[in-house]
Specification:
Layout: E1 2-4, H1 9-19, E2 25-28, H2 38-50, E3 54-57, H3 59-69, H4 74-84, E4 88-91, H5 100-112, E5 116-121, H6 130-143, E6 147-150, E7 156-157, E8 160-161, H7 163-172, E9 178-181, H8 192-206, E10 212-213, H9 220-227
Parallel strand pairs: 1-2, 2-3, 4-5, 5-6, 6-9, 9-10
Antiparallel strand pairs: 7-8
Helix pairs in contact: 1-2, 5-6, 6-7
Length: 238
């Protein structure tokens, strides 16, 4: 999954023309979709479809609507997403905590409205017990989420990977239904070298086909090279 934090249309077309075979998903992050002129957003979404890349709305937009306008406003959010041509949204509780009942209810309601849902588990503000992340993921999947993303901030501490958390996720969740987010400079203490180190750890622990999220557009080929043992880390060993 590649992250889109406001990439210009012409630039994004160039990225897709070169790298589309290596991109499955693109996240329109946080609430940035609301700042686009409507026609420009629809053009971007159509371009994603043209290259067979699936766009989706980041979960913090959903959190904002829920926190500011309440659950009653969510059906309008879903209707507007569908009207724009968006088929998938993320439902998270990065900064607005959800009870298990709220998580289950919101995912079920979005699915019932005709949307596909990616659930996200974990907080951007506190480190959770990794067993809790597994429980939250199970709620997401049982409620109808197609995929679960694991919040990057839960997997690093002072820039270093929490290997114990990775081990719990590896044992507790189906690997084809989860996507692990890479951290970025928005997380305190994380540097570029920490992101590269985490990639190497994930490829070693989960295998070269691990589902990765938050890939920057300038690192698509570098990441793919690492998957097949052509990157700076050298050949991967099982």
């Amino acid at each position: 999954m590649v992250i889109d934090d406001g990439l210009p249309l012409a630039y994004l077309r160039g990225v897709f023309e070169l790298a589309a075979p290596y991109i499955d998903l693109i996240k329109i992050k946080t609430g940035t979709a609301r700042l686009y002129p409507r026609d420009q957003l629809m053009r971007k979404l159509a371009m994603c479809e043209e290259f067979q890349i699936r766009p989706f709305l980041g979960g913090q937009f959903h959190e904002y609507v829920f926190a500011m306008l309440g659950e009653a406003a969510l059906p309008r959010f879903y209707a507007e997403a569908r009207a724009l041509g968006i088929r998938t949204i993320e439902i998270s509780d990065n900064t607005v905590p959800l009870t298990p009942e709220q998580r289950r209810g919101q995912i079920s309601a979005a699915v019932a409205s005709g949307l596909s849902v990616f659930g996200e588990v974990g907080s951007k503000e506190t480190l959770s017990n990794p067993a809790l992340l597994v429980e939250q993921a199970e709620v997401c999947l049982s409620a109808g989420a197609e995929l679960v993303l694991v919040e990057a901030a839960e997997l690093v501490e002072n820039g270093r990977v929490r290997r114990d958390s990775l081990e719990v996720l590896k044992r507790g969740l189906p690997q084809d239904r989860i996507m692990i987010e890479l951290p970025g400079p928005w997380i305190s203490g994380v540097k570029s070298c920490d992101i590269e180190e985490m990639k190497k750890i994930l490829f070693t622990e989960f295998g070269p086909d691990v589902n990765l999220a938050n890939i920057g557009v300038t690192t698509i080929y570098d990441t793919e090279a690492q998957r097949v043992g052509l990157g700076t880390g050298g050949p991967l060993h099982s």
